Amino acid sequence: MQKYTSLRNSGKPSFLCSMAFPILSWVLSTNVYEVNTRQYTPEGNFTAFMPHMKRLKDMGVETLWFMPITPISRYKRKGTLGSYYACSDYTSINPEFGSHADFKGLIDYAHELDMKVIIDWVANHTGADHNWTKSNPDFFIQNEQGEFYDKHGWDDVIDLDYNNRDMRLAMIQSMEYWIREFDIDGFRCDMAMLVPVDFWIEARTYLDRIKPLFWLAECDQWNDPVYMEAFDAAYTWKWMHATEAHYKTGVPMHELHDILFSYERQNPYAIRAWFTSNHDENSWNGTEYDKYGNLAYPLAVFSCTWNGIPLIYSGQELPNHKRLDFFNKDQINWKGTPELHDFYKKILKLRFTYPALSASMADTSTRMVHTNHPDKVVCFIRRSEGSEVFIMLNFSGWPLQVRLYDDWSPEGKAEIFGIPFCEGVFELEAYGYGIYV
User: Fold this and answer.
1) Which domains does the chain have, with CATH numbers?
2) Full-model pTM
């Protein structure tokens, strides 16, 4: 318990109201690529994934987010392999994925490529046979019969008790292990809003002193704005659901605009993470093509160019039209060079090249541009000192001739995807997109 005692006696309060954590400069221009280790290769391990890293670096990927790499509980396991999110030991590596040396070698290689690595951290619950159930049963909530359980109905996991001070300290010590042993660059925190925000503030206050980290929350600041006191970035489920409804039921464009600017008003300095797919969406709700059809393409451009950072899931560069099994082996079908490699390369490299695409409200501005198709086209300009990027997206299934009602001209600017422009008219294909720099 030596490290626990050291942390307990550090003299730092458990909760620091309105804590302002500085955002690392690299975070503002980064993108995040989610790695599903199990399904990525036939072997499903770190060593087999590593040859893909140069391809991903060439595609423009800056940050690799690994789904949980800890061992998976066997008791109440779902399927043959179980859920990544049912951890049995916070400070060990799932032997299916490799060894301590394998993961350390992967992170060292990522850093050689100038890539960052963040790991998925599941703090709300553990698997049903986590080692703490034997060593520290008081770390968990229990029912009247003294049984461990989960409050949200997930039957392969059990909830931790955040009223237990020693459990909190043990959790922070476990997170510290991955920083000191592997030199990770941050955490993607699973279901962050189910854990008290004061825990995240305490954890970050302590851990950032070891190494300044990137903190990504799986929560939406739309519903849980207080969590942005602890995190750099959070999800945008509200936008994701609204754009799906726009495609399927015709939710009007002005409602999408309202959502975007409501995010900005809520907390202008918090970073929004934009996405069209991830492990949950793909497995349970369908691929981005199930949800959006070909609207998935302009939405991908949007995710990479609107104020914030993009999240990309394993295989989206294929493109992947397959829903991956969550609890069993179900490999991604890689076939040569992914068709969308250059598509993503163009837009991801722009983020690094043009400061106007930084996720910094202090140094950039985002302005909507009015067109003759306000119900079908999303058109906006990102600006910073000495940098300007103009984006035009067709959210409809019809080819359009688009005129601008604002004083802006593409003359003298380079267009990335080759939109025809003649006599003041942009020719946009159905679900087409264009970027001028």
Assistant:
1) 2-362 (3.20.20.80)
2) 0.95
